[in-house]
Amino acid sequence: MSTGFGDDFKEQVRTSTDLVELISATVALVPNGRDYKGLCPFHDDRNPSFNVYPDRQTYRCWVCDMGGDCFTWIQEIEKVGFPEAVRILAERARLDLPAAWSNKGKRGPSNSEKSDLIAVVEWAVNQMEQSLWTGTQGQLARRYLQERNISEETIRKFRLGYHPEDWSWLLNTSRGRFTGKQLVDVSLAGERDDGTRYDNLVGRLVFPILDEQGRTVSFGGRVLPGSNITSDAKYWNGTETSIFQKRRILYAFDRARESIRKRKQAIVVEGYMDCIACHQAGITNVVATLGTAMTDDHVRFLNRFAETIVLNYDGDQPGRNAAERSVARFIAQDVDLRVLILADGQDPADYLERNSADEFQALIDSAPEAWEYKLQTVLSRYGITSVHGKQQVLNEMLEFLAVGPRLQGTVREDLILRRVCGLIQTDELRARRQLKDLRQRHSTRRTFRQDEEHFVPPDPVVKTGLELAERELLEIIVSCPRHTSYIRHHIGPDDFEQPQHRRLLELCFDLEEAGELPEFHRIVTAANSSAEILSLANSVADSAQEKGISELMAEQSADENGSDTSVPLHLERVLHPLLERRARYHTLQSTHKMTQTETSLSSLNSDAKEALRRIYNFRQGQMGNEPPSFK
Asked: Domain 7-105: which topology?
C-alpha cells in the first residue's frame, strides 16, 4: 500500500495512539481481563462481542469478524482512505506530518501550531460558559434560554456561553496567556485597518462549534432580544481559519454521529437552536449548517455515515429556497434524499414546542423523496396551464434528473418521467432523448469523487481437515514464533490452499527471513493496516489462546531411543497432514511422468529415477516399512 508516508512515521503515529482511548470515543468499553469489551459498532450487537487488545494494539469482533488497528479503525469509523487516517491520527497525537505531506506540500500551520490555536478556543469556551452561569452579566442569556424552553442539562451538554457587552473582554482577559494575534487567528477577535483589535461575539449567546474529532474550533453567536447590541445579522458565524472550514463542518455532528450511524439517517436543519431543540427532544441524529448553504463537502461528508438524509429547513420562503438549492447537490452526489417542510412556516424548534417528538419523527419518516419535492416546487412556480409553464416544468425536472447518476436506467426514473410527461401531456420518447443529451453534457463536467468502499472479507471458514491444519499451523506461529524457522524449512506458502491463510503465512515467513521473529506486534506493523490480514491475525491469536497452544507446544516429542527432541509433538501432529498432502501431490506428478516414458529402468535419466524413488518410498511408507535406498 503506497501512501507517501514513510514506515517510520506510520509507526510513530501508531505508538503515539492509545487504541483503547481512541475506540472509547465511539464504543463504551469495559475491562475484560487484560483486554476490553463492548458492543460492536459494525453490526446490530446485543451481547458485547467487540474486543480491544491493548497489548496487540488491535481490535476484533467475534461475530462479524471486523478487525484491524488504529488506522483501519479511523478508516471504518470516519469512512476515509488510509492517508487521511494517518493525518487524523497524527493530528490527534500532535505529530507534525512529513513536510511533503503537510497541507499537500504547501506552507501552513503545523499540527503543533494548530494545537496551540485549539487551546485558545478551548480557553474561550470555558470563559464564556462561566460568564453565562455567573453574576448578572449572563442573566439576559439565561432568560432567553428559559423562554426557549432549553433545559440546564442541554445548556451544559452543548456548552453554551455568553460574551458580555464589552468589546475588549476576551482581549483583556487573555493577556499573559495568549496574544491578541492568536485571538484574531481563531476569529475570536477582529482587527481594524489601524491595527487596533476588538472582540467578536460581543453581547451574544455563544454556540461552540466542534469538528468531527470533538475539538472546539470556532463559535457562532446570537444577538439577544433586549440587549444593547444592535446588528443587522441576528446570527454571527466565525470566519474560516486554519482550524475551521465551515464548508466541511456541521454543527453538533460530534453528538449526532453515533445516532446517524445506527439509524443510517441524518436530519439536517438550518439553525443552532433548531438542532439543540431536536436533541433535547430525544431526536439525536440531527445536525445543522453554519450559516451557509449545503456544500459538496457537506454532502460527501454525510454520505459517509448515512444512507438517507432528510432536509428539514424552515417553512418560510428563504428556507424553501435553501432546501431546493440543496436538493440538486444531494442528487448529484447519489444520496437518498428526503425533504420535509413544516406547515405554517414553522421551524423544528417551533414545531417541537407544540408537538411531541414522536409526531415530529413521524413527519420525518414520511418525508417525500427529493424528486417529489422538486416536482411540487416547480409545479407551484410555473403551473401547467400554459405551454410556457409546461416547458419550464419539463426543463427543470430533466435538468434535475440529469445530475443524478443513481437514477439512470432505474424503475424510479421511469416512474418520474412518466409522471412528469403525463402531467404536462408531452411525448415521453422526446423527453428521454432530451434527458440523454443533458446527461452526456453533464458527464464531461462531473468531477464528484466517489468514496472508497470499505469492505473487509470475513475470516475464512475452515471447511476441510487440511484447512484446519493450515489454521493450526498459523496458531503455532503466532503464539510460538520461535518455531517459525523450523516450519519454514518444511512448509512453503504454496503448500497452503486457503488464500488468506497463505497471505498471513507469507508475511510471517518474510519477517523470519529478514531476521525478525513474527511476534504479533511485528505482524501488525508488517500488515500495513490490511484489515483482511489483521482480522485473520486477531482471530488466529484468539483461537490459539483459547486452545492453549503455548501449553500444547511445551510437550516435546521423543526419538526412537526415547530421548526428547527439540520439535514439539503438537507441531509434528499439525505438520503431518500438510507434509502428507505435499507427498501425495508429488507422487501424482511422478506417476504422470512415468506414464510418459517406456524406457527401461537401466536407461532412466535422473528425473525419472527421482520420480520412481518417490513412488516407491510413498508406498513403503503406507505399508509401514522403512524404505531402502533406491539408486
From this structure: DNA Primase; Chain A (3.90.580)
